[in-house]
Design a protein that fits this description.
single chain; alpha/beta; Rossmann fold; three-stranded antiparallel sheet; 8 strands; 47% helix; 18% strand; DNAH1 isoform 6; dynein light intermediate chain binding; DHC; dynein intermediate chain binding; AAA_9
């Protein structure tokens, strides 16, 4: 029954995911479906930056904020994304996350005067229900503590040999038979 669910997810999401630049190999689409239905924020192990590019394309029309932990004002950027319900991408993280992110990672919201709020650092901010967060790392084999692993959905986006084969075949078809590639793209768009 698990294969049926994966197949249904593959069919339902292949068009929109591919349009946003997700490679169309099975592992990439499965990872996209996991991201779509995860209850926790997703943390992509992404040494080839494929998830990073896909997220940027997928969320570009939604005002995606992109920042790094090393940015001086990353907490201010995070605060604005939460307050205004914007998606954010925290990219190129290492094996540790800033402890100030704890309430965001755990979605520790509460009601204050009828409004949903979250405490980020010393500041209580309104929590917009449309807020989304994605995290990526370029580390090929990161070692996360159990504390981090239980707070996030870890998705390994490392390119597999079969995924590489699928992507290379797609590029060869695009070069050798652009008419077939265009027909495929039109089918994906019409079915999306």
């Amino acid at each position: 029954s698990g294969d049926v669910l994966v197949a249904a997810g593959f069919v339902a999401y292949l068009g929109p995911f591919t349009i946003a630049g997700l490679p169309n190999d099975t592992l990439s689409v499965e990872n996209g479906v996991i991201n779509q239905f995860s209850q926790r924020w997703t943390h992509f192990i992404d040494p080839q930056s494929q998830a990073n590019k896909w997220i940027k394309n997928m969320e570009k029309d939604n005002g995606l904020d992109v920042f790094k932990l090393s940015d001086r004002d990353f907490l201010r950027s995070m605060e604005n994304a939460i307050r205004f319900g914007k998606p954010c991408l925290l990219e190129n993280v290492g094996e540790e996350l800033d402890p100030a992110l704890e309430p965001v990672l755990l979605k520790q919201t509460y009601k204050q005067q009828g409004n949903t709020v979250l405490k980020l650092g010393d500041t209580v901010i309104p929590y917009h229900e449309d807020f989304r967060m994605y995290i990526t790392t370029k580390l090929p084999n990161p070692h996360y503590t159990p504390e981090i692993s239980t707070k996030l959905t870890l998705i390994n986006f490392t390119l597999s040999p079969s995924g590489l084969e699928d992507q290379l075949l797609g590029q060869v078809v695009a070069e050798e038979r652009p008419d077939l590639e265009e027909a495929k793209n039109q089918l994906i768009i019409s079915n999306a």
